[in-house]
Amino acid sequence: MSEAHTMPAPCHTERVVGGTTVVELRGEIDLLTAQALVARLDTLTAGPCPDLVLDLRPVSFIDCSGLALLCRTRNRVLARCGRLRLIADSPRFQRILRCTGLAGVFETYR
User: Fold this and answer.
1) For residue 108, what is the enclosing H or E element?
2) How far is the CA of 71 from the CAs of 5, 19, 50, in angstroms?
3) Which of 12, 34, 76, 103 is the most exposed place for a label (fewest CB within 10 A)?
4) Which segments constitute the STAS domain (predicted)?
């Protein structure tokens, strides 16, 4: 018997507020979900001067794939003279950023 393996769709919503794209991510950002998010975030950061806010408050788990996704998005935004902000009020997420040396890399709000 063969098993069908499917990639879970990342759970996110998007809205534009005053020219800023706000993406609310929910659930887990891990090896299985990060790849699907890469394509969407690449599209959102493809133009000149992207202004992007990633709301991570509803995220329950993030692994190194999720952190790599955040770094990739940041690099794309900066290469296009844009701005990326993270909203994250979880002490656990703040600790992950500190432990990985990424605390000062992102513009983060609680």
Assistant:
1) strand 107-109
2) 28, 22, 15
3) 103
4) 19-110
Q: Residue ranges of the domains in the chain?
A: 11-109
pLDDT in tens, 22-74: 999 999 999 999 998 999 999 999 999 999 999 999 999 999 999 999 999 99
CA 95 – CA 49 distance, rounded (Å): 30
CATH superfamily placement of domain 11-109: STAS domain (3.30.750.24)
Q: Is this structure's pTM higher than 0.85?
A: yes
